[in-house]
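Q: Structure tokens for this one, please.
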Amino acid sequence: MNPILIVLLVFGLLILLSSFFTVKQQTSIIVERFGKFHSIRQSGLQLKIPLIDRIAGRVNLKIQQLDVIIETKTKDNVFVKLKVSVQFMVVKETVYDAFYKLEFPHDQITSYVFDVVRAEVPKLKLDDVFERKDDIAIAVKRELNEAMTTYGYTIINTLVTDIDPDIQVKNAMNRINAADREKTVAEFEAEASRIRIVAKAQAEAESKKLQGQGIADQRREIARGLVESVDVLNKVGINSQEASALIVVTQHYDTLQAIGADTNSNLILLPNSPQAGSDMLNNMVASFSASNQVGEMMKKTERIKPKEIVKPQPPEETQEPNSEEV
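A: Here is the predicted structure, written as tokens:
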């Protein structure tokens, strides 16, 4: 077989095979003929004319994300780094514009993000940047949509994913936050201490009140018992003075017995001789007798009232007759 024929057949077969190509899903291919735009091919098996048509490029129709890090200054002169994530895609109907009108879409998007962020952030203080990061993202998306739609791109979403101020400012903010929390803790602890003090004072006041009521009831019962004891002793021929002295002496010895029963007591009662009881009794009887005598004398002096002394008035002077009248 002629070798030339074999070469021609092989060459023709290669050319035939090169006329077929496949396009992946979510991808568009630009086909040019003699360097001029010819057609846009979508996913599947496609055919082109060998040596005449060529694949100029591929356009990704998936959603893409571009992260842009910007350093700018806030209104209160704090330098801060922001990370803005831009999610965008090429619309299938605008593949021609996306391929031919814009050569470097990432650079274009980055430039618009820088422009918008550096126009919005200097209007805000650092605290407001954290609070209004969504407003910044919305402003970036609005500006990008207006600019990139012309080039066949649509902006799906923009997110401010990170706000990183200077390390010294961050440490100062942490200290302020810690101090504020310590202040809150101190206020709560002071309030809890006040509540405990008030509750303790109220409890002590209630305890003192109940103790006072108990002491009053105790003394009232003691007085009632003393009255009954005196009445019993009077019935057996012991007068009130002797009965009172006897009761006091009995209580004295009861006190001595209570002191002796407590092993931990450091109390010393003076005088404490065996004759102290009888001396106390004699002294009390003598004092009662003396007080009765004084009382009787005071009653007698009150009954005798001194008579009022009537002073004699001087006689009236007689008026001498006038010589002229005589």
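A few notes: Residues 167-235 form the longest helix (69 residues). Residues 307-311, 317-326 have pLDDT under 50 and may be disordered.
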